Structure formats: structure tokens, C-alpha cells
């Protein structure tokens, strides 16, 4: 018997849910993608600030205009 690694991508009751449920599902997926994008940007900003604080930016030759 083959091992199923991924769940089925199609809901068997998708056609019976109606347009309101489909739009709610689409909105929930969109909000999840936006939240994930914000978290990636926030992590990148925090990593950059941490690198500046540790002096890694100057060590790598990157010149940043930061007020001390």
C-alpha cells in the first residue's frame, strides 16, 4: 500500500458549501499569507538591526547611515 505523504487538496464537499464558504476560505488563505509575509519582513528587520548592533555591517564593508 503506498504511503500518502500529502493530504488531498480537494474537499469532497466543496461544491455543496456554496459561494460564501468558498470566499471565506479564500479570505482566510489570503490573510494567512499576508500574516506570514509580515512575519518574514519583521524577522528580516530584526536580523538587520541585530547585525548593526553587533557591528557585522561594518565588518562586511556595508556602510549604513545610522544615527547613534
Radius of gyration: 22 Å
Distance between the termini: 64 Å
In terms of DSSP E residues, the strand content is: under 5%
SSE succession: HHH
Which stretches of 5+ consecutive residues score pLDDT under 50?
none
Our count of helices gives: 3
- Strand tally is 0
| Structure class | mainly alpha
Largest sheet: none
| Arithmetic mean of pLDDT | 79
Global outline: elongated
Kindly state the percentage of residues in helix: 55-70%
Please give a structural write-up.
By secondary structure, the chain is an all-alpha fold. 65% of the residues lie in helices and 0% in strands. It has 3 helices and no strands. The model has no long low-confidence stretch (mean pLDDT 79).
Can I get a quick summary?
With 68 residues, the chain is mostly helical. It contains three helices and no strands.
Topology:
Blueprint: H1 14-17, H2 19-54, H3 56-59
Based on the model shown, name its key terms.
single chain; 68 residues; mainly alpha; elongated
